[in-house]
Write the structure tokens for this entry.
Amino acid sequence: MDLASAQVIGAGLAAVGVGAAAIGVGNVFGSFLESAIRNPAAADSQQGRLFIGFAAAELLGLIAFAVAMIILYAR
Amino acid sequence: MAAESKIDPMHQFQISPLAGHLDGTPFVFTNSALWMLVVLALIWIFMLGGMKRQLVPGRWQVAVEGVTGFVNSMVTTNIGPEGRKYVPWVFTVFMFILFANLLGMMPFALVGAQPFTVTSQFTVTGVMAIISFSIVLVVGFWKHGFRFFTLFIPHGTPAVLLPLIFLIELLSFMVRPFSLALRLFVAMIAGHILVEVFGSFVVQGLNAGGVGPVISLLSFLFIVGVMALEILVCAIQAYVFALLTSLYINDAVNLH
């Protein structure tokens, strides 16, 4: 296998991480919604924590994207 | 590698000098600098229009007061009453990122201008992250001296685990500026690449003939959805950057 095709395959494999981060982000918002419906009075005060969790989950997906780009455009 | 395909999604992030050459001297007026000035001008106009201090605020003043009140309450709930001192920096970062992100989404290519997203450059987001991190370090050591290092030891850590926990916490602390900068820059790059690639699909599908226009239509509908998501992401990224900055400052001010 030459380098170019190996790069494309590697980038594709690295992009799987983005999907995993999508599961994580969905989990964060899903769990928040689930508990916010149970106790709507406490929901607004936890919005900051919601976005911290979102940011942490999303960061890993974005790192996977960055890795894919580095593999794809590395010479 | 990607040279043989016609789609070149990375071209839009290229920094090119508007006059002169980039090699030789770093002090050249580039398109990045131009768009930063545009962002600054827009923020200036936005703030100036809402600072008339009318007793009965108009729509514009309500918008400005909404943004300032939002940042103010975010900082004070996260840091406490001492946090008022740090509102200027958090507000600056929030407004700059928000306006730069949204300006990058605008279809300026329709009027012939070459659009450029300032926040899609790691240098720009990196400098903002480094400033935030420097504020944390300076405030932490100024207020607490060497007791600032107790930030890396959670309460009730067993003595055996102390060195390990200290190292892990130190590492996670040192990674903060990178994660802060990387998140914003990659989120912007990813969105713009996605829109660019599917935009090229629309053009190529129309040129291809056959079932091409159907694919163009599907791509176009997809782009409309993605654009709506991207505008949401623009606001969320600005919010997350400001929120994390205020949380990190809270660590330095209150030490757990």
Chain A has a mean pLDDT of 89. Helices of chain A lie at 3-14, 16-38, 47-73. The interface with chain B takes residues 4, 7, 48, 51-52, 54-55, 58-59, 62-63, 65-66, 69, 72-73, 75 of chain A (CB under 8 Å). Residues 3-73 of chain A form a domain with the F1FO ATP Synthase fold (CATH 1.20.20.10).
